[in-house]
Prior knowledge:
- The chain is α/β, with parallel strands linked by helices.
- It has helices at residues 3-12, 86-89, 91-108, 129-142, 154-162, 205-221, 229-237, 243-251, 255-259, 262-270, 274-298, 327-338, 351-371, 376-382, 388-394; strands at residues 13-15, 21-23, 44-50, 55-61, 77-81, 116-123, 148-152, 169-174, 178-183, 189-193, 309-314, 342-345.
- Strand 11, helix 12 (327-338) and strand 12 (342-345) form a beta-alpha-beta unit.
Amino acid sequence: MKLEEKEKEEEEVTLDVGGMKRYRNGEIWDFELDMPMADGGAGVVLGLDGGTTSTVCICMPLIPFSHSQPESLPILARAAAGCSNHNSVGETAARETLEQVMADALSKCGSKRSSVRAVCLAVSGVNHPTDQQRILGWLRDIFPSNVRLYVQNDAVAALASGTMGKLHGCVLIAGTGTIAYGFTEDGKEARAAGAGPVLGDWGSGYGIAAQALTAVVKAHDGRGPDTMLTSSILKTLGLSSADELIGWTYADPSWARIAALVPVVVSCAEAGDEVANKILLASVQELVSSVKAVVERLGLCGQDGKDAFPLVMVGGVLEANRRRWDIGKQVVSCLSKHFPGLLPIRPKVEPAVGAAWLAWNFFIKGCHRELTQLTAREREGNLSFLNKKEINQFIGD
């Protein structure tokens, strides 16, 4: 290894007092140095929902197997940060954001990494097993070896937020981006869309707003019909002419910034603008087709197409409102014609809570399976990070 490469590596990675690697991104784990040693009590789990717009981490206590249901677990701490999609900001920035938000959550509840039993990181941009393995490798550098780590697409946490941590049914996310993701009860999974705006996620907030901006430019050029979108968008952005729209768009073409124009499109459609109305109708059909693809591929609707299954709906584009043009309501109406057993669910908790429930469920099931296969002596030796009370409760003694 060349000297300069070695020096660069040493600058990027250091070891904290617990022997765990820590990347130099603001000394974020220094708060642990001032905390007392762990008292051996029950640990905590972390659930992360990382997206293009924001990243949230939830910390929950690891209440043992005898506890009723994960949905009754209290939230010990919540921390939030910006974008953690590596396709948007790059791997280094995404990793820094995720690490920072986990440190903030643990710091808020007075815990440290030695108290963590499981982490479920559900982040957008995880589209392939190689994405999962890369992030798992990074997480293993941060946490002790006994911490159980799970990496999923952010859609999985969104589904869990509406099904109390159970992976069954379909979730439709339509916020800045969009994706449909589904699971059968025996673990089969499928997805549709979620490939980003360049590859055609036109049912998303970005897709809706981008089509509106395009309509304004076309109207200005004389290549498309006049539309109320022109005056409404220019007023919203504080611009005086459509010519300035090009400069505004490319000055910072972030997905979330452009998606923020969706309410303007909805308002114009409600005011009777035909162009805006067509854009929203097209977005509904895109979202419907994504859900249909997942449901039919997994057979969630049964052979006769009438079986009941949950459809969890998440994201600003789908949020119920009092306006006449309700995208989420239109999506449900269209899908119900195809799938009479459709059970639409609008979660009462955020996806990060769903991720924490998944971490809890994964950990409990894994421990229970392993503990029931061990003798009493082996239990203490192989799972020494649990105290005796935890062990007995996990196996139901």
